[in-house]
Write a structure and sequence with these properties.
Largest sheet: none
Structural class: mainly alpha
Number of domains: 1
Number of helices: 13
Shape: globular
Strand content: under 5%
Radius of gyration: 24 Å
């Protein structure tokens, strides 16, 4: 793997005497992002086919592996129909922003010990800033299309993506705090002794859930909501323009898995990854595809939720828990060195055991408290409904009719 240029400080950039290395780094990042996308579409189609007891792509090439290429060629040759009375600048800028925002995130994702586009000392902040451009792209598509259904789909971005960025950022601060750095590479290096998923499992779950909502994939795909608003923000796009939104959605889901692996599962860390950087690349993609498999599994097995339930889940559940996790982690990070002083002569893994034990136990206690609160809330809600039924203000739904044999 070539030694890609690294920018250790924001604004410093790579060595100006190596313009060829800069071009090679940018091209490699683009090829990795776009190359994995072609495989990912086939991979997800085959996976959902197994979940839904279907065959999936199996005609074009062995096991249907060339089906995605055929679809790309079809989209490239289809006519782009441009509606009248659109805001042309906003209309054409939207798909570019949607795709560019996802690809630019990969610039700070460390693929191996030596392969990273730019190791910014504020890489985590860069990720949050760039990911917000995707919401701008979807909103621009709704506004520029001059279509009420597209506009409604775009406005849902403000209610969903921006809202779910709050627990996303709060959970992102946990690995940043544990590593003591905003650099993505430093966060991966700090997990050499123990993954942050063990130290902060609740933060990992919140980050993944909020990220899935920000990507707008099921069960949080209400931005599109074709059963309610036709096809959402991209209803007026066709051909290659529509394909760019399609590309952004699929690539963003894989990027979410890559970020989750980087922040909580050690990134490229693995046996002999430091000695052989190519193995670091292998470990990174194995972990990323494992996470991608789980995200797809959830997407095709969990039903879509209502918009009001989704927003209540964010503001009344995810965000308060994310705040508690952040405060709890910060407090314990200050206390544990006093309880267990650092001994330079002990191995790093042994040194991290007391810290991991305290944080993991605290997360378990938090999960137990949350379950108890949810049980109390459910019990009160059940009692309220039973009281309404007794008072005649609410009628229970009729039982399902017995099946009729034919």
């Amino acid at each position: 793997m070539p030694n890609l240029p690294v920018a250790a400080e924001i604004g410093s950039g790579p060595n100006p005497d190596e313009p060829l290395s800069i071009i090679v780094a940018a091209v490699l990042i683009l090829l990795i992002a776009m190359g994995t996308l072609i495989f990912n579409i086939w991979f997800e189609r085959k996976q959902v086919a197994r979940v839904q007891d279907r065959l999936g792509p199996n005609r074009v090439g062995p096991w249907g592996i060339f089906q995605t290429i055929a679809d790309v060629l079809k989209l490239l040759t289809k006519e782009i129909i441009i509606p009248s009375q659109i805001d042309r600048l906003t209309y054409w800028l939207a798909p570019v922003l949607a795709v560019g925002a996802v690809i630019m995130i990969w610039a700070v994702v460390p693929l191996s010990p030596v392969a990273i586009g730019s190791d910014l000392n504020v890489g985590a902040l860069y990720f949050i800033s760039i990911s917000s451009l995707g919401a701008v792209g979807v909103l621009a598509a709704g506004w520029g299309s001059n279509n009420k259904y597209a506009l409604l789909g775009g406005l849902r971005v403000i209610a969903q993506m921006v809202s779910y960025e709050v627990p996303l950022m709060l959970s992102l601060l946990v690995p940043v705090m544990l590593a003591g750095s905003l650099s993505m590479q430093d966060i991966v290096d700090a997990q050499g002794a123990m993954w942050y998923f063990i130290l902060a499992p609740v933060a990992c779950l919140i980050f993944t859930t909020a990220g899935q909502a920000e990507v707008a994939r099921a069960p949080f795909d209400l931005i599109e909501g074709e059963s309610e608003i036709v096809a959402g923000h991209h209803i007026e796009y066709s051909g290659l323009a529509f394909a760019m939104f399609y590309l952004a959605e699929w690539l963003h889901s894989f990027t979410l898995s890559a970020l989750c692996v980087t922040l909580f599962f050690g990134g490229w860390q693995g046996p002999f990854a430091v000695e052989v950087p190519a193995l670091g690349l292998l470990w990174f993609f194995l972990k990323t595809y494992a996470g991608y498999f789980i995200l797809n599994w959830l997407r095709y097995t969990v039903p879509r939720v209502r918009i009001d339930h989704m927003m209540s889940f964010n503001w009344k559940f995810l965000t308060p828990i994310a705040l508690v996790v952040l405060v709890m982690t910060a407090t314990l990070e200050k206390l544990w060195p006093a309880l267990f002083p650092v001994d330079p002569g002990r191995p790093g893994f042994i040194q991290s055991l007391p810290r991991a034990g305290i944080l993991f136990l605290a997360n378990l206690v938090l999960v137990g408290v949350v379950i108890m609160i949810l049980r109390q809330v459910a019990r009160r809600e059940r009692q309220r409904v039973e009281d309404l039924v007794d008072e005649g203000q609410y009628s229970a739904p009729a039982p399902m009719p017995e099946p009729v044999e034919v």
